[in-house]
Amino acid sequence: MLAKPRGTLAYPDTSRERRLAAQLRGMIVGADAILVSLVAAHRPWPHAHASAMNVAGKPVRMNPTTAQVAARWVLRTWPDADWSRPQVLDLFTGELTAGTCTIVRGR
User: What are phi and psi of 68, to 5 degrees?
Assistant: First the structure.
């Protein structure tokens, strides 16, 4: 790997949201979006939870620790979002939208 000059970001895009999306895209291989909510099926109380999916809407496997870390990072990046509903983070645009995961992208 080539060394970066001191003081430069690993992800040159300065938008915090887009940097997070790029980091998650590298961390969750094959994922195009993640669905983040405070309701997990196996927990009766609010709990940060994320599930990843590819462009076809198929689930992408990730371990429980990665799912929890990704969910917490998204919650901290968008603290003012309506977390009473699930939110979808598009890992290519860095946009957070409410609802279920539908990715429309020509590839």
Answer: -70, -40
Q: How many CB atoms lie within 10 A of CB 98?
A: 12
CA 33 from centre of chain = 6
Question: Which tokens in the block code for residue 2?
Answer: 């080539």
Q: Are 72 and 64 in contact (CB under 8 A)?
A: no
Digit-coded pLDDT (tens) for 53-67? 998 889 999 999 999
16-27 and 64-77 helices, crossing angle to 10°: 170
Entry pTM = 0.76
CB burial readout 13-46, b (16+ within 10 A) else e = eeeebbbbbbebbeebeebbbbbbbbebeeeeee
Asked whether 90 and 103 are in contact (CB, 8 A), the reply is yes
Residue with tokens 């983070």: 89
